[in-house]
Q: What sequence folds into this?
């Protein structure tokens, strides 16, 4: 570490170490890749295992349920050791989860695949709990939100790569899976399903190789601790931290908003391929192109948002994004032709700034000594992606209309806009600035 890099008493640095920040940001596409592969798996499992929309969405429930269960243990690892140790732990567990796809693809049971996905999620929970907070702290406090937005800009690159891997390694040419199996005997269909399930292993082979390289780079790179100095005072217990956070009204509102935002984002992405198939796409491989377009839009949206937030208040940008998002999702629900798919793709532009802005803004309302556990709670809000897609799938099954089910995501986006409208009003009050500054000390 260079000598002119100084850690401040609040844990932030006087400047950002560039190589360490870039390497840290490279973790974001790694969980983006895993998350987008779930969208591929949902479509594949729907046909191969003959699942309902609700049952196929359990892929997301297993994935994001792992985040919820492990985020607090991950925060305790950070408290007892360091962000770097938590990241290395996450990478090892991520590798183990990917390796589990080998027995899963041969056992050919939906439960085993869900177990492998859950194992990956455990590793990713360590990575996200550490990396999101670490990215916001590895530099000057004034640029914490900008740093996290920059790191989050790497996410759609990984998500895009996950979809490309799934398109060419999991999905195959020809008619859709349902169409192909319709003309097969029971034995032929069984063998066909086994072949299709073996294809699900392929992207995870490449992921393991990348993960090993990244793990070695982290192992041999020195990182600052970025932890507040306690000045000889004992660190707060977990119970004290819970009581403090339970009384923090703005923190709780941020948690609810992150829960609904992540759930909405994952729900839209989970059903975009299926929406394209329902409205006329010829097969899964062609339909997956619309997820590629979605992640390109997501990437563009982050850059546009970063630009806008240098000129306007973040709350105003997110309010505008939410209004447009609600209108776009209403179009997806009500337009009975293929343009609804393009609207579902476009809405990804509007997802860009949400996660990082909610995360950094919510964390800023917390005193520094509670930062590690508070960050874990915000990561735990990712469990919204275990509930909202399943709810949207259930609504689709009950109504018999996947398009109308997008109303679930519409309501979530409306809440995001309402949250930022409330934050804008609160932050305009002089007393609020003083309270936030006091909380940040």
A:
């Amino acid at each position: 570490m260079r000598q002119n890099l100084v850690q401040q008493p609040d844990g932030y640095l006087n400047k950002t170490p560039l190589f360490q920040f870039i390497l840290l940001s490279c973790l974001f596409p790694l969980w983006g890749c895993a998350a987008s592969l779930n969208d591929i798996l949902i479509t594949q499992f729907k046909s191969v295992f003959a699942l309902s929309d609700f049952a196929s969405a359990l892929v997301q429930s297993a994935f994001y349920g792992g985040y919820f269960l492990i985020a607090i243990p991950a925060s305790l690892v950070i408290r007892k050791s360091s962000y770097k140790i938590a990241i290395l732990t996450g990478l090892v567990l991520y590798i183990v989860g990917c390796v589990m796809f080998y027995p899963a693809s041969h056992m050919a049971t939906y439960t085993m695949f869900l177990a492998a996905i859950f194992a990956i999620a455990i590793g990713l929970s360590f990575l996200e709990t550490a990396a999101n907070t670490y990215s916001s702290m590895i530099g000057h406090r004034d640029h914490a939100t900008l740093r996290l937005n920059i790191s989050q800009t790497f996410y759609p690159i990984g998500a895009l790569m996950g979809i490309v891997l799934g398109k060419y390694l999991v999905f195959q040419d020809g008619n859709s899976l349902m169409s192909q199996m319709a003309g097969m005997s029971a034995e032929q269909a069984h063998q066909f399903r086994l072949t299709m399930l073996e294809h699900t292993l392929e992207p995870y082979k490449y992921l393991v190789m990348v993960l090993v390289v990244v793990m070695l780079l982290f192992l041999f790179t020195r990182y600052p601790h970025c932890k507040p100095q306690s000045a000889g005072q004992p660190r707060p217990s977990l119970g004290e931290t819970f009581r403090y956070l339970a009384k923090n009204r703005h923190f709780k509102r941020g948690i609810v908003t992150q829960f609904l935002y992540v759930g909405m984002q994952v729900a839209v992405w989970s059903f975009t391929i299926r929406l394209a198939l329902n409205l006329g796409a010829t097969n899964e491989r062609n339909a997956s192109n619309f997820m590629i377009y979605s992640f390109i839009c997501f990437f563009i949206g982050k850059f546009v948002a970063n630009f806008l937030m240098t000129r306007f208040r973040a709350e105003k940008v997110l309010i505008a994004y939410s209004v447009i998002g609600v209108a776009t999702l209403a179009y997806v629900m009500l337009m009975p032709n293929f343009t609804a798919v393009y609207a579902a793709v476009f809405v990804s532009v509007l997802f860009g700034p949400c996660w990082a802005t909610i995360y950094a803004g919510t964390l800023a309302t917390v005193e520094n000594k509670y930062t590690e556990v508070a960050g874990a709670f915000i990561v735990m809000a990712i469990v919204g992606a275990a509930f909202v897609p399943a709810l949207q799938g259930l609504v689709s099954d009950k109504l018999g209309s996947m398009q109308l089910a997008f109303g679930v995501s519409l309501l979530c986006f409306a809440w995001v806009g309402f949250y930022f409208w409330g934050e804008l009003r609160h932050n305009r009050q002089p007393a609020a600035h003083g309270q936030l500054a006091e909380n940040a000390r």
Remarks:
- The chain is about 75% helix and 0% strand.
- Residues 249-278 form the longest helix (30 residues).
- The radius of gyration is 22 Å.
- Residues 430-441 have pLDDT under 50 and may be disordered.
